Amino acid sequence: MEFKKKVVIDCDPGIDDCFALLLCICHLDVQGIVAVGGNTGLRYTERNARYITELTGRTDIPVYAGYDMPMLNKIVRATEIHGSGGIGTVVIGEPKKHLEKQHGVDFLIDTFMNHDDISLITLGPLTNVAQALLKEPRLKERIPEILCMGGSAFCGNATPTAEFNILVDPEAAKIVFESGIPIQMVGLNLTRQNLMCAADVERLKEIGGPVGSFAAELLGFSVGNSMTPNLCDAAAVSWWTGSGVITKSMKVHVDVETKGEFTRGMTVCDWRNYMGSDPLQEISREKCDNRAELPKNVEVAMEFDREQFRKLLFETIEWYKEQ
Questions:
Q1: What angle is formed at CA 60 by the lines to CA 58 and CA 64, rounded to 5 degrees?
Q2: Residue among 56, 2, 15, 48 at smallest CA distance from 317
Q3: Alpha-carbon distances of 295 from 251, 254, 288, rounded to whole Å
Q4: Do residues 79 and 39 touch, judged by C-beta distance below 8 A?
Q5: Residue 290 DSSP class
Q6: Distance between CA 78 and CA 86 in Å, rounded?
Q7: Which CA distances in Å does 284 have to 288, 289, 290?
Q8: Contact (Cβ atoms closer than 8 angstroms) between residue 87 and residue 125
Q9: Rounded distance, CA 19 to CA 6, Å?
Q10: pLDDT tens digits, one per residue of 246-256
Q11: Helix, strand, coil percent values for the chain (each to nearest 5)
Q12: Cα separation of 20 and 11, whole Å?
């Protein structure tokens, strides 16, 4: 039997989250989905997560609701990108799939305190994960790794310096990034290398079936609204599918800025050790060498194979049609 990596997904569906969930349910062993407020409100993100489990025939995957609001920040949404309900103009009813009664944060704590072989994927604001770490500090030693769609190695989208997921709850992101848990970060510098287009919408329509038709309508909304349909979250989870979509990454120290007037929510990456000759080297070798003391706490995705991603996506949608 083919090995599938066991994961829990914390997300805020969201158009690109929906595509990410489609990839994960096909290629990974999804143990549970926790919704958070982000792209739209929690009432829609948890509904959309439940809908995806129905659409894919995987109603056995439990779905939990976490926090709707950030820890300290004012509410920030992205409904202009995803539509008020998070899935563009697609209209769905209330899914028959039920929402679990346990709070999503408690599910995260119970899962990672009692299992050693499950990894965590985060595709939205990090509120739930930070709250779980505060409630149960031992999680720092229990979560083996985090694949995080968030931040950027260089510039932002919500502001010139901050990516949306981090900007929504910078304090939560800071807690997670400083936790010591190994993090693989897929930021805007990577996801902007992917750009979907009208031809991709037509390809999804050709594949058809319930999943293909839903995917085509979602992507069509993004393309038709002249947005930047990079499918950021789907690009991120492709790292763990074994498909070779992400072709280069680099380990660096990353801090999350929470106080800057112009840089709040920025993921500050320390690239100094990767630069050429440093003029300070002639002045103080010791001072230069001290920079290496910052731990390389994050592996940052850098290069992306766009065509390989398309191959992965379309083959996945075709797989659903054949089931």
A1: 105
A2: 56
A3: 9, 9, 15
A4: yes
A5: G
A6: 9
A7: 6, 9, 10
A8: no
A9: 18
A10: 999 999 999 99
A11: 45, 15, 40
A12: 9
pLDDT in tens, 269-308: 999 877 764 444 443 444 445 555 689 999 999 999 999 9
The two three-digit tokens of residue 276, written as one number: 């050429």
30/9 Cα distance (integer angstroms) = 7
Distance CA 196, CA 72 (A): 35
User: In the numeric block, which tokens belong to residue 295?
Assistant: 């731990």
Place of tokens 């549970």: 32
* 183: three-class secondary structure by DSSP: strand
Strand arrangement of the beta sheet that strand 146-149 belongs to: 63-65, 29-35, 6-11, 119-122, 146-149, 183-186, 298-304, 246-256, 267-270
Predicted TM-score (pTM) above 0.90: yes
CA-to-CA distance for 7 and 31, rounded, in angstroms? 6
